[in-house]
Amino acid sequence: MELNSLSEGKWWGDDCLRHVDGFWLLPQFVEPIDRVVKHFRPLPSDIILASFPKTGTTWLKSLLFAIVHRTSKHRLAMKNPHELVPNLEVQVYTASDEPLTTNPCSRHRIFSTHIPYQLLAKTLDSSDCRIVYVTRNPKDTLVSTWYFVNKWKKAEKEPWPLEVAAEKFCDGLVPCGPYYDHVMGYKKLSSEKPKKLFFITYEELMSDPISHVKNLAEFLGCPFEGEHEVEEVVKCCSFRVLSEHEVNKSEESPVWFQLPYNSFFRKGAVGDHKNHLSDEIIERIDALTIEKFHSVGFMYGI
Ligand code: PAP
């Protein structure tokens, strides 16, 4: 894919995203995403965690790791979840067509991706791999994105105002946006192929983690043997426990990203948008949610 031939859209100051098949991508990820699309061949035993950024990826990474590698879940205290479950376009296919080797002994390889289904459909449909998709209320997603982006180096000189972030979010002009198209791509697949894709929301998981984590483990073919086991997994992946580990409080940045490990843990709450967004922004996003989700029968996000 020729980077310079793609149309550009300004999202933050003079910084532009590139338009690829209906989605806005950060320029540095256009080529890695192209490599994933062209070269990644999932094994039937692979588990792919897909998500729009800031919707619960870190949480689901830890849960998937703890469910699949149950006897090794103590490793979550020593390594950040993003090191245990690598992202395809950010960590695996960064600079070469050959993926980094992941643990060849594990029964299931687990990868994550923010690539929209519309771009990755052929790859994902070519294998019996299982997909887990997590989504989150659009208003909380926006607030979490806004906080995260304002930690980037550029924000020291040029903060990203919340009003601009909201405007761009509604226009779909945020990394991996439009949010609504990203969610609906995977949502549609989950309705058509419920055995292939497990669709979960951040809010469902927060309100009843035990039931949903049990269902998730069954979907993955790794059911729990007793109540105690599932309770332990839920606990070790909770925001409270995970965010207390030194490795997740670390100010050190990984080689693959510009922000420190602690930037993946902020508040971990449902409804934080109420503390940040004006009534006007809330009304605008709710109207969009009704148009994009409710009108097609997905009663979510308000
Ligand atoms: P990513 O797309 O960059 O990987 P992602 O993990 O999806 O980010 O989103 C980060 C959000 O998940 C943060 O939300 P907040 O800004 O509203 O606080 C982060 O705090 C939250 N988060 C991280 N780990 C957990 C967890 N174990 N439980 C609940 N929320 C979590």
TrEMBL record:
Its EC number is 2.8.2.-. Coiled coil: none annotated. The keyword Transferase applies. Keywords: Transferase. Residues 44-295 form the Sulfotransferase domain. The keyword Nucleotide-binding does not apply. GO terms for molecular function: sulfotransferase activity. It holds the Pfam family Sulfotransfer_1. InterPro entries: P-loop_NTPase (IPR027417), Sulfotransferase_dom (IPR000863). Belongs to the sulfotransferase 1 family. This is Sulfotransferase. It comes from Sesamum indicum.
